[in-house]
Amino acid sequence: MTRTILLIEDNEQNLYLATFLLEQKGYKVVPARSGTEGIATAARILPDLIILDIQLPQMDGYAVARELRQNPDLKAVPIVAVTSYAMVGDRERTLEAGCNGYIEKPINPDTFIGQIEQYLKANLPEGRTEP
Q: What does the alpha-carbon distance between residue 15 and residue 85 come to, in Å, rounded to a whole number?
């Protein structure tokens, strides 16, 4: 069973790199280029995991995470913030907004999949042992 990852990212280069890495490992990646598009897409597809850029136009990732957590169908879906915000308190702020994890940009292609799979393993369907 292919796991579906919603990737909410407005930067085309970041979107391309993350999509490429995830698809190489067999994941289905659904892109959204804005927070509002991401919220609507998440409600429609009910992904296995959401990767969320924090620096989005119009609606930042914190607001997106809070909105996603209001949807009862998405409460158990892990949200991983991927952001260049690396100041003291930024990790805590993402977790308070409803994210389950935090990965700093630029992502490291050698470790990115392993980081993402940590959150997928925590959210495996009953009876599954691999993401």
A: 17
Give the whole-angstrom CA distance, residue 102 versus residue 81. 5
- Domains in the chain, CATH or no CATH each: 1-9+54-101 (3.40.50.2300)
Rg (CA), the chain: 13
Which helix (H) or strand (E) segment holds residue 6: the answer is strand 4-8
pTM of the model: 0.92
Helix ranges (H only) for 6-105 are: 12-24, 35-45, 61-70, 90-97
Q: What is the pLDDT of residues 65-107, one digit of tens each?
A: 999 999 999 999 999 999 886 677 788 899 999 999 999 999 9
